[in-house]
Amino acid sequence: MPIASQISMVPVVIDDDKCIAEKGCRTCIDVCPLDVLWINEETGKAHMKYDECWYCMPCETDCPTDAVTVNIPYLLR
Amino acid sequence: MTLPDDITVKDVDILVIGGGTAGPMAAVAAKEKSPNASVMLLEKANVKRSGAISMGMDGLNNAVVPGHSTPEDYVKEITIANDGVLLQKGVMTYAENSFKMIQKLDAWGVYFQKDETGEYDMKKVHHLGTYVLPMPEGHNIKKILYRRLRRHRVTVENRYQAIRLLKDDEGNACGCISLNTRTAEIVVIRAKSVVMCTGAAGRIGLPASGYLYGTYENPSNCGDGHSMAYQAGAELTGLECYQINPLLKDYNGPACAYVTGPLGGYTANSKGDRFIECDYWSGQMMMEFYNELQGGNGPVFLKLDHLAEETIQEIEHVLHTNERPSRGRFHDGRGVDYRTKMVEMHISEIGFCAGHSASGVWTNEKGETTIPGLYGAGDMASIPHSYMLGAFVFGEICGTNAAEFAEGRDFAELDVAYITAERDRILAPMKRTDGIPPSQFEYKVRRLVNDYLQPPKVTKKMDIGLQRLIAMEDDIQHLYARDAHELLRANEAQHIFDCAQMAAVASMYRQESRWGLYHHYVDHPETNNEDWFCHVQLYKNESGEMVCKKRAIDPYVVELDDSEKNAYAQMRVQQAD
Ligand SMILES: Cc1cc2nc3c(=O)[nH]c(=O)nc-3n(C[C@H](O)[C@H](O)[C@H](O)COP(=O)(O)OP(=O)(O)OC[C@H]3O[C@@H](n4cnc5c(N)ncnc54)[C@H](O)[C@@H]3O)c2cc1C
Ligand code: SF4
Ligand code: SF4
């Protein structure tokens, strides 16, 4: 059963300049109830890896450096 | 026979599954009851921010506070709202413990709104009595629960999805098989009693937006607990009494008539007219909502544009900072301002939920399921309309009773053959190199639910829906996951699949209409108390088939007058001629 990948615009945006994941911070990744935030292997910063978001906002609220912005998913806007 | 090396076993006296609302309370209560027992709280997400109250809560929807109402009043109200089909003893147990729980939470530092005299500032939203207690500073509730877990030294295990319950030779619950959702490791938890607090089944239907995760419920509550209980042989009840809620169109969060109602807001039709007497969520109210939506007077709106500036600011403060704080952003994106525009509403996808409706795993007034040693609290259980405070009250009851059950028991012998077979089944999607992605499988199940199982319910439609679902059974062997996260989704999708079939089977079994829109059965449009004044229990029989049976309603503890019984039937605003 062959598969294809589709791209998707994700609702959560992380400001790489503000994110301090390289210092060991994992707060947003820890709190997300859907486990969709992961470390981006290329940049070492947090990013939204899966488009499966409840726009609930713990990631944004708990980030110590205000690096996270939760937008409403495109289909709902 | 011993377990293979790749399966880890952990032993705890009491296992609590699901660390949202009821779960932390159950774990703390178990420790309070048996301080020397080991208690584990297993959570699919992270207890710091998991479940329905991940960001806080706007208020208590069902507080029974002396001076405002009595437990008897409350039991009557819920009996009427639930068309008489309920375990009154269970609702009474909730009502009698409601105020004590508020005081406990208050002592822990949860802030409830008080009036000038220092009394709880109760609001009337229900049809008959006064039960709503606002908590505008409700966002710290998860922090407070977490502190209690630490203080009582509950072992917290985050990012584990419980997938199957374990039973011993005598049929007692004795633990679960779980999956580490980050490493795809299988971990068996052996326990002397188990409390399930896995929340609603909120990912069965597809939101009108088409976004899989744009559900009313926290999407981590996808029906894992319902499926697990079913597969273990427990009875579920009232599944045909769906949860369907009036929500903000597309945003799919509560419009919050409970917050705005006491301040003068209301649900209106496209002409701006009020059409329902009472905004308290019930099947009867939803029926009127649905009729207005479909009947040419829709869309339906939340009307606030007549309110004073300071009232609107108060509403914005609560609704845009607490329970669903992205709501303000949603409105901004569409240029909606409460001052000038009514806010469009719609109805939610279907789900199973005892918190808002009456559907879930059967539990009695002690929180016991039909499996000895297995308890259930909150949205996944079956004490109707229990909301957040009910989750806390029954969490406490279940934790205490589970601790008592565990006393003096030994750990059961593990069934190695079963566990190994389950490991292979659970991990199978990751062993394949291609196949059906969980998201596609899930989308298809949920689309079938919307097409065929949503009310108005029609036998022919439900029949087709069920057959189409059964045909999807063959697809399970092709599910494909590229990593541990997708494996989590693949396992969730299979639970959603079970729940979808349960919705069809239970709905077709009850051949009458009841609970307004929730079980609006077109082929059987009348309520038939002669044949159907009973619970419908769904379970897996000896041959592995999904079947239903009737369960008689236990004698009432509070009798109703005939004049009271129909109070919720008169929901529509009467027009003066
Ligand atoms: C948007 C919204 C607004 C609400 N507003 C109000 C209100 O204002 N007032 C009120 O009284 N009530 C309100 N409610 C209802 C109330 O929040 C719920 O009834 C209550 O919180 C349910 O508690 P629970 O413990 O059953 O479920 P939850 O708190 O949702 O917890 C379930 C937990 O189980 C975990 N879980 C699920 N499956 C598994 C698994 N397989 N393994 C491990 N863990 C698992 C989940 O991750 C989650 O943490 C609202 C609900 C929602 C969704
Ligand atoms: S919480 Fe903020 S700083 Fe920490 S990893 Fe996430 S984005 Fe980076
Ligand atoms: S908004 Fe919620 S679901 Fe979305 S990434 Fe943040 S914490 Fe996760």
Automatic annotation (TrEMBL), chain A:
CC per GO annotation: cytoplasm
Membrane-spanning ranges: none
Record carries keyword Protein biosynthesis: no
Protein name, per record: 4Fe-4S ferredoxin, iron-sulfur binding protein
Domain of life per record: Bacteria
Pfam families: Fer4_7
Domain 4Fe-4S ferredoxin-type positions: 10-42, 44-73
Entries under InterPro entries matching the protein: 4Fe4S_Fe-S-bd, 4Fe4S_Fe_S_CS, PSI_iron-sulfur_center
Source organism per UniProt: marine gamma proteobacterium HTCC2143
UniProt keyword terms in alphabetical order: 4Fe-4S, Iron, Iron-sulfur, Metal-binding
Molecular functions per Gene Ontology: 4 iron, 4 sulfur cluster binding; metal ion binding
Signal sequence bounds: none
SUPFAM superfamilies found in the cross-reference section: 4Fe-4S ferredoxins
UniProtKB/TrEMBL annotation, chain B:
Protein's recorded name: Oxidoreductase
InterPro entries assigned to the protein according to its UniProt record, in alphabetical order: FAD-dep_OxRdtase_2_FAD-bd, FAD/NAD-bd_sf, Fum_R/Succ_DH_flav-like_C_sf, Fum_Rdtase/Succ_DH_flav-like_C, SdhA/FrdA/AprA
A GO MF label: electron transfer activity
Keywords per UniProt: Flavoprotein, Oxidoreductase
GO CC entries: plasma membrane
Stretches assigned to the FAD-dependent oxidoreductase 2 FAD-binding domain: 13-386
GO annotation (BP), single: anaerobic respiration
Keyword Plastid among record annotations: no
UniProt domain Fumarate reductase/succinate dehydrogenase flavoprotein-like C-terminal: residue ranges: 445-554
UniProt source species: marine gamma proteobacterium HTCC2143
The organism's place on the tree of life at top rank: Bacteria
